[in-house]
Amino acid sequence: MMQICFIPKEKAMSSTQTTQVMTADNGKDLSERDLRVQLAAAYRIFEHFGWCELIYGHISMRVPGPEHHFLINPYGLRYDEVTASSLVKIDLDGNQVEPSEYTFNPAGFVIHSAIHANREDAHCVMHSHTRAGMAVAALECGLLPISMNATSFYDRRLAYHDYEGSTLLVEEREKLAADLGAADAMILRNHGLLTVGQTIPEAFLYLYRLERSCQVQLDAMACGQSLVTPSEPVIERSATQMVDFDKHVRDVGQLEFDALVRLMDSKDPSFRE
Predict the structure, then answer these.
(1) Which of 3, 64, 78, 244 sits a CA distance of 20 to 30 A from 105?
(2) Where are the alpha helices (DSSP H) in the chain?
(3) Among residues 46, 49, 43, 13, which one has the least CA distance to residue 198?
């Protein structure tokens, strides 16, 4: 049976590209405080979906300003303990910009600084170690376009990065950025999943779709039956339709993310602290 696998993205975006302004749906710039609340909510949402692995994994968000400072989770806290004020602000050299009682995951610094330094449009970076994501990351075929969500990553929107260890060496940053290129998502072989977006809601929606695609693929493969793979023209059409659908709403992922923030508020609004 023919299998259509996604092609890795080729080259990173030029550093000369213009940074798009981080805006809320009302068109006003989001403050650092607003971004802290959004990012803390994202950690709680990850916990809600079971996308965390102990205290590992990380989500980052660049704050306004030319310095490329970004926020990341305090190392050692569970995702359901993360609050807006506990997020750690660091620079591209791994220095904490403001005093904090917490530190940060060094592997997280390598991954996130690599992308924030090379993708002007990637304000938010999400990385997960989910069971389904790590399983597909260990498959030679990678992600297969056998579900609607999976087709959204067609046409070089999904990249791959070969495993080189626990991403603790700064020398790996250049390869990470080059492998991601201009893609929206990347499978880190033998490791996990990664998505980027101009906003937290956008990166979240891409990760949700990627994670769901991995879950569906594993479930389908576990049945031991032949997989039904759409033709390439149908896959391409489906991908185009999903991109057009995203553009139809005010901001990519905003409606979905807002709905989940309301859920987090109903469960425990302490992430806003």
Answers:
(1) 64
(2) 32-49, 106-118, 131-137, 148-151, 173-180, 200-222, 232-248, 254-267
(3) 13
* Domains held by the chain: number: 1
86 phi and psi angles, rounded to 5 deg: -85, -10
pLDDT tens-digit series, residues 8-17: 434 333 333 3
Reading the block at residue 176, the tokens are 């990470």
Rounded Cα gap, residues 154 and 65, in angstroms:
33
- Determine the Cα–Cα distance for residues 170 and 160; give it in Å rounded to an integer: 19
DSSP 99-112: --S----HHHHHHH
What confidence tier does 106 reach under pLDDT thresholds 50, 70, 90?
confident
Residue with tokens 């050299």, as numbered in its chain: 93
58 lies in which domain range?
32-272
Q: Is residue 24 part of a domain?
A: no
Residue 158 lies inside a defined structural domain of this protein: yes
11 inside domain: no
